[in-house]
Amino acid sequence: IGQIKPELYQPGEAEARAGAPCGRLSFAVRYAYGSEQLVVRILRALDLPAKDANGFSDPYVKMYLLPDRKKKFQTKVHRKTLNPVFDETFSFGVPFAELPARRLHFSVYDFDRFSRHDLIGQVVLDNLLEAAERDAETPIWRDILEATAPPGCPLGCPHAPWGCPRAPRGCPRGTAPTGAPRRAADPYVKASLMAEGRRLKKRKTSIKKNTLNPSYNEALVFDVPHASVHSVSLTIAVLDYD
Question: pTM for the complete prediction?
Answer without folding.
Answer: 0.54
